[in-house]
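ok so for the tutorial part 2 we go from a plain amino acid sequence to predicted structure tokens. step 1 is just haveing the sequence, like this:
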Amino acid sequence: MTVVRNPIIPGCFPDPTICRVGEEYFLVTSTFEYQPGLPIQRSRDLVSWELIGHAIDRPGMLDMDGMASSSGLFAPTLRFHDGMFWLVCTLVDQQDASRGGNFLLTATDAAGPWSDPIWLEVDGIDPSIFFDDDGRIWMHGTRLASDPEWFHQTEVWLRELDRETMAFVGEEHILWHGAVIGAVWAEGPHLYKIDGTYYLLASEGGTEFHHALSVARADTVTGPYIGNKANPVLTHRQLGHGADLVGVGHADLVQAVDGSWWSVLLAMRPYGGYHYNLGREVFLVPVSWEEGWPVFAPGLGRVPREVDVPFASRQTLGVMQGAASGTIRSDDPRWTSLRVQPEQIAEREGDGWVMPLSPATLSDATVTAFLGVRQQHRDVDVVATLSCDLVEGEEIGLVVRQSELDHVRMSMSSSPTGIRIVATHRQAGVDARLGEIWLDGVVSDALELSVRAREQDYELSAARPGDESYVVAVADGRTLDSVATGGFLGVWFGVFGTSNGAPTQSRLRVQSFDYTPR
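step 2 — the prediction. this is what the tokens look like for a chain of 518 residues:
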């Protein structure tokens, strides 16, 4: 018996979608304003996952400059058909509805390269794709209902896609408005054909506390779809805010090599009160079939914290797979930047980076000098060794980032009297100083900036390498998660450099970046 502890992929990897090709499984998640976008993860046992690439991984594929945080890449769907991977997704600009849209990517190798986006003439979000056994391709997705009966009622639409032209053909069909009257956002739809019956899996209630998973079935792909009398078939909303997992939903189904069925889905793990700084994470749930319907977590009815995966390759009890740990070198695929590829704003130098400072700041919804990784553990030490020949008005530093409106940054600047290190909490767009210290010397000498996260306390410190560390401030993490700030993301740790609007030739050297779970 091999028992794995959920989540199978910790940290902010929301909206999981999965498919199996032979004996391998491939999984993709949303990335919003971060690039590279749409990470491709591979496994042979649904337990141990390897990040093998990204679908959005080169300049020019998408224009995201100016998109505010929690805009960007929403809810992909990954499928494999006739020797090719198909990936559909939505690019959303929450401030400009005319920008973005639904697009399709293809690749013969999941690791890439992926095609340039093929834009689809359809509104809404959360597109999905279904290949019927008669050779027809059906696109489906979610949008606000054209004639709603209640606020934020949505509809799941379906339309055939011509493989040669990649254009829609035939009439559109409305399949579903959700299982519960009054429920908002019946989203993340996926179609399957199993033993001759068509199944529609969708989540409703919004991707927060009231998230719930529902299923319907039909004899033909266009419907009519009849909902399961047990709907919602999986949710944690009845458990209250004190549950160890909340927001369960946005699921996808996969059949394992041994014939068993499984679902990957998202949920959040609150701690320090009703806050989930790690964001929406990937969980694994066993699925059985009874009377022609899928049963999620049979006999339990909730997402288990431990799952028996009989075909897993090794004992993984208590191990969270896919997590960053130790020194994160410059060639590690977990590095992300804001709205453009990391290579567009920085160069690799050995195990570190050299990044020109940007006139833009972390408070601007644009391309800026930022490199970061997801927070994947409640208790973790992050240490960045930085140096830069700064001129007056310039800053470099370490940031605990939620968005341009909400983050805690520890910045270094030079003066004739030494190095000034300031911790600033930006909350709802307003800056407040948390603490300040001074060190002797100049910033061109290497300095270590660190964050010591223990539950919801984020202790920010500074030191010269090998010397005593000085605490600059302690930030309250409960102000940094999406419950407190809005949006869809967990917390990132990153480094940054800005000239605060002035022209600059300065370059930040990221000599090392360590992420050590405790």
